[in-house]
């Protein structure tokens, strides 16, 4: 982990996985898979980098029976993060409180038992000279390299244990391996199979024509006429027979397959089946949490914003937010002006979509004027996510764009703020991440899709087809 000025400043936290397992605790074997049983059962000592603590303050509890240590350099770096409103500041404060409580009657330099059944021990590693390789001499004197030295020292002190450096900094993992230190990413909460991530819809071929006719005539049919097993709640389908097809979804409340009609939301019409599914979920008052995943140009933000404006009478306000990913390692506080001026550069894509919706109508029309009034009367509000903690959000639609740049804990924090009559919409592309130390497996949007599927209040749809323009599609398909 680098100095406090390093990209780690943009790292926020993750919620602790409901299971206490961690992929980092898997047995280490040689590449041929023929390791001895002593190697398989060898107790490990995990050395955690600052990036792991800022991602999950409860990380030290997630290594089962193995011991966990943090270098004193990590505590020094956390001291620079304890002030502020971002999730990373909350994580730093929570971890510091945890250490304070754990060490109330003990010395931190000694191994302290972690609370809980089948847990290992914990200690803080002080800075000492190593007898062998010295990372500060090889790479230079900086915090990253002091952390590497702590792992090297532990290897010398505990030769019978396997020492593993755990960090979300890829470059630090590479440096560790160059010094013959085993290094791994922090795996708790990661989605292992991103390629198989829930998409929210399926196509079913060879559906009997009479079933499709029944859906057209009555709007509903029994699930067993179409499906061989019970689908996820609010799952969508393209049902096809030899001559016709229909869009449908599984209504988990009524336990029926229902027809999905192509609705228009404030002048915005769905251009493909997935967009029709998305609008159906967005306009459904029974579904309180919606996520939309897809590459650039598939219409994620536009559909979310249009549906929110369409439902303006059902809610007091529409909140729009995007994670502020700092440029050149400077956070929002460095930008001039008030909070609105600071946020505007990051929120331009949201305004672009609002202008697109406005342009569906003539400037003299009531619809055009209503959108303008919503902005002027603050019925449609840009809000920073940094100040969401502690608030209770009632009677609003909350749209969070670029949600792939959030950590799982940030997503949980946002959802936990929901009061009565609140709908929350997350949009993003899990393969286009701008936040350091997050990837397609560990970001908050992937985590939400994987964990919330099959809940009656939740619906998800993955948009596949770009609808922005033929030129934009060229970029997605060929470049």
TrEMBL record:
Keywords: ATP-binding, Nucleotide-binding
InterPro entries the UniProt entry points to: P-loop_NTPase, PhoH, PhoH2-like, PIN-like_dom_sf, PIN_dom
SMART domains (UniProt xref): PINc (SM00670)
Name of the featured protein: PhoH family protein
Domain of life where this protein originates: Bacteria
Low complexity composition bias: residue spans: 8-28
PIN domain span: 44-174
Residue segments, region Disordered: 1-39
